[in-house]
């Protein structure tokens, strides 16, 4: 039994591993990859998604480009972490995977409409494409099984003291997505910082002996060096693939149903996600929040995926 998935991403080093895990894991049926501006410009994130598939030999999944800016305000990319092209480190090959003629929202719409069962959407970047889909096609809400999003935090942030990057980039999209009533799971910094790319992890990825593993090792080396310089973390957290891992194997993480709101107007807190883990806020429990990661299980999934690809 496989879960049909649309992966909406902004590659980004960690998004690349999310693509590879979604394509390789036997419990995932990857129906589409859509891209959004976030870690880099839309041109870079879209090219990087095609490169990720080229390296790993993924040629049967359509890729479509989406929003080039958030719903409101200007785009601020994460060049300090991901490099000027959003995928710093290895030499990037010319992609041999074509870009679909449809927009991201059009591709999402078609996949949802044509599927014989509801589809899970896994966004690993800002939620701009997802919110736009829900704005333009509210009739498709029932066709979405759930949304498992990497973003937010139950504690402190990384773009501002309280806001995580994906939430901070487009908080209006976060608000609209949660308010839509779709089943949302927030996979925030509180759990992703448990997935540290240690030297042992990097060596396990390289030891797979695959082209994907060699490329992934170079990505991890750059990513860790950037985190060491910018955030003082020599072992970078591999945020995004946790979403895919949770869809493929729910036992990889624990979660709790609670109230989640996003700050839209705070002078110092815009983009902060308020997760009511104490149960003190009135109102419905409107989201799931991921809490604890089975770290060994997670890294075994990543290594197995890299080993299974080209």
Automatic annotation (TrEMBL):
<dbReference type="InterPro" id="IPR036452">
    <property type="entry name" value="Ribo_hydro-like"/>
</dbReference>
<keyword id="KW-0326">Glycosidase</keyword>
<dbReference type="InterPro" id="IPR023186">
    <property type="entry name" value="IUNH"/>
</dbReference>
<dbReference type="InterPro" id="IPR001910">
    <property type="entry name" value="Inosine/uridine_hydrolase_dom"/>
</dbReference>
<protein>
    <submittedName>
        <fullName>Nucleoside hydrolase</fullName>
    </submittedName>
</protein>
<dbReference type="GO" id="GO:0016787">
    <property type="term" value="F:hydrolase activity"/>
</dbReference>
<dbReference type="Pfam" id="PF01156">
    <property type="entry name" value="IU_nuc_hydro"/>
</dbReference>
<keyword id="KW-0378">Hydrolase</keyword>
<feature type="domain" description="Inosine/uridine-preferring nucleoside hydrolase">
    <location>
        <begin position="5"/>
        <end position="299"/>
    </location>
</feature>
């Amino acid at each position: 039994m496989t879960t049909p998935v649309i992966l909406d991403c902004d590659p980004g080093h960690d998004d690349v591993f999310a693509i590879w895990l979604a394509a390789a894991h036997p419990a995932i049926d990857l129906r589409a990859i859509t891209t959004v501006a976030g870690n880099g410009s839309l041109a870079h994130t879209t090219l990087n998604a095609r490169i990720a598939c080229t390296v790993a030999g993924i040629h049967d999944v359509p890729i479509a480009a989406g929003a080039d800016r958030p719903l409101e305000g200007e785009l601020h990319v994460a060049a300090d972490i991901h490099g000027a092209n959003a995928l710093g480190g290895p030499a990037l090959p010319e992609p041999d995977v074509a870009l679909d003629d449809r927009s991201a929202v059009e591709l999402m719409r078609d996949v949802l409409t044509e599927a014989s069962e509801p589809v899970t959407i896994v966004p690993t970047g800002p939620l701009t494409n997802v919110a736009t889909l829900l704005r333009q096609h509210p009739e498709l809400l029932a066709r979405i099984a759930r949304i498992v999003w990497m973003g937010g935090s139950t504690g402190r942030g990384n773009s501002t003291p309280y806001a995580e990057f994906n939430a901070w980039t487009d908080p209006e999209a976060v608000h609209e997505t949660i308010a839509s009533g779709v089943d949302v799971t927030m996979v925030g910094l509180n759990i992703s910082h448990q997935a540290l790319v240690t030297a042992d992890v990097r060596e396990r990825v390289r030891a797979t002996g695959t082209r994907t593993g060699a490329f992934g090792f170079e990505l991890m080396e750059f990513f860790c060096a950037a985190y060491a310089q910018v955030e003082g973390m020599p072992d970078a957290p591999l945020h995004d693939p946790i979403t895919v891992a949770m869809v493929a194997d729910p036992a990889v993480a624990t979660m709790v149903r609670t109230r989640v709101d996003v700050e839209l107007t705070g002078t110092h807190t815009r983009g902060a996600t308020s997760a009511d883990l104490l149960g003190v806020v009135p109102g419905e429990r409107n989201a799931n929040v991921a809490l604890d990661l089975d770290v060994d299980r997670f890294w075994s999934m990543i290594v197995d995926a890299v080993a299974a690809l080209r």
